[in-house]
Amino acid sequence: MTELYSIPDVAKLFALQESRLRYWMQTGFVGPTVRKQNRFYYTFRDLCAVKAAKDLLAAGLSAQKVRKNLEALRRSLPGDAHPALKLRVCSDGENVVALADDVAFVPATGQVVMAFNLPALGGQVASLRQRQRERAAEEDAADGAPQAIVDDATEATLGPSAYTCFIEACAAEARGDLGEAEALYARALDLDPHLAAAMTNLGNLRHRAGAVDEARRLYERALEHDPSLAEARYNLGNLLEDLGETDLAIAELCRVTQQAPDFADAHYNLGLALVRLGSKARARRHLHRYLELDASSEWASRAREYLAQVAA
Which helix (H) or strand (E) segment is 266 a member of? Predict the structure, then answer.
């Protein structure tokens, strides 16, 4: 059985703020790959990617290079990566290599800015679990709330003010203060005009307010700055569908499912758009994939109803 780790677990393990992990997850940078009962969990393979991201950013690499390295790392690691696996992960900032022995890889430049052993990382995880068990045995549940983690590091490509504004905007949106959220997203973009995640979230708010043209421009700007940002492309596809531009909407949602095969909602919306288009075989494929990814959601019964309609 695969052991799963919550966002608070991972924050403690790597001395990162939970808000930082949620930001990475929201922007598609690095995040958990398992969703259960509307909560997200990290596998050990995901932990390797988080550690690599933290180490590479701390070494001063750009977000673009880090993203490239993370993609290479995911390709290098087997799907069932486990702490006992004898791998060493190394990077010179341009390439990531995973070796199946105990010899550290030294790139041609002679500079290794990130290297870690999976067994060592597994030991860190085990230590975290042991400390949690010891605390649980010693403390009452009322006194067991986790302490805030102090993390002075900032994103390599973001000024701290832009990052802070973005996080505060997300919090304002979560509590329903949409006016404050809009102002904070706009402030984040004033400080960092390339912050695609802020463009995406601001686009969502403008779309909800009925400012469709402005929302579309924000999504398109976000994708100009970060073409791999699946959330921006997903929202653009939904907006195009609302405008009746079904062919364009389907094209964008198809790209989302290609870039992020586990993006459940993209499969669902794409399946519905294909149902309306009359493309039954393709609709079935994406609705089935949605149910594989999120069979217990509130939309699962609707997906099954649509599947029944296109069963013939």
Answer: helix 264-277
> How do residues 226-283 score in pLDDT, each as one tens digit?
887 888 899 999 999 999 999 999 999 999 999 888 888 899 999 999 988 888 899 9
Q: What's the CATH number of domain 7-141, 2.10.260, 1.10.8, 1.10.10, 1.10.1660?
A: 1.10.1660
Q: What is the CA radius of gyration of the chain?
A: 21
Residues 85, 135: Cα–Cα separation, whole Å: 29
Q: If you average pLDDT over residues 191-217, what whole number do you get?
A: 91
Identify the DSSP state of 42.
Answer: B
Please identify which residue in the block is written with the tokens 């790597």.
Answer: 14
Indicate the CATH number of 158-227 among 3.10.50.30, 1.25.40.10, 3.40.50.20, 1.20.1250.20.
1.25.40.10
Q: Which runs of E-coded beta strand occur in the chain? A: 34-36, 39-41, 88-91, 96-99, 114-117
Amino acid identity of 16?
L
Question: CB of 256 within 8 A of CB of 234?
Answer: yes
Residue burial 113-144, b: 16+ Cβ < 10 Å; e: rest:
bbebbbeebbeebeebeeeeeeeeeeeeeeee
Choice between 301 and 157, residue whose per-residue pLDDT is larger: 301
Paired strand residues for 27: none
Q: Tens digit of pLDDT for each residue in 206-226?
A: 999 999 999 999 999 999 988
Rounded Cα distance between 134 and 75, Å, is 36
